[in-house]
Amino acid sequence: MPIIRTSDRNRNESISEGLESFSIVDAALGSDALRVGELTIAPMTRVPRHAHTNTEEAMVLLEGTLEAQVGSQRMAIEAGDLVLAPAGSVHGFLNRTDTPARLLYVFPRHDPDRVWSTPPDAPPSGFPSEQGLSGFSSPHDRPLENES
């Protein structure tokens, strides 16, 4: 098993505006199945609601504060909190703060699928508190507008 220095990894794998991800462990680094990465979520940016039908996902908030949703459960999480999204469960995050948040994610397989929970023709609906997390249909989501 190799020893991997995260400082040597490319941290510039931008998913979309406000979201940057980089792989820490994957097949290219010698893992038989495990995939581990880090996601940085900019202020006033969301990770759109989505599901992985072929695997579960564990996420640990390393830094910052986020609003998290898994299924119908929604709550604020802080550094050190863990979110477990069972296979097929819709989940997403929102950073309403003025500082970036860092999230470590772990999949027990190399090839997690991703199914967005918002239809492609749906208008951007923001992130209204009474409706919980919402997202768009593609990974090219815009940062959130400021809400009152």
UniProtKB/TrEMBL annotation:
Residues 111-148 are annotated as: Disordered. Residues 139-148 have a biased composition (Basic and acidic residues). The keyword ATP-binding does not apply. Residues 39-107 form the Cupin type-2 domain. Keywords: Metal-binding. This is Cupin type-2 domain-containing protein. The lineage of its organism: Eukaryota, Metazoa, Porifera, Demospongiae, Heteroscleromorpha. One of its GO terms (molecular function) is metal ion binding. InterPro entries: Cupin_2, GPI/OXD, RmlC-like_jellyroll, RmlC_Cupin_sf. It comes from the Eukaryota. SUPFAM superfamilies: RmlC-like cupins (SSF51182).
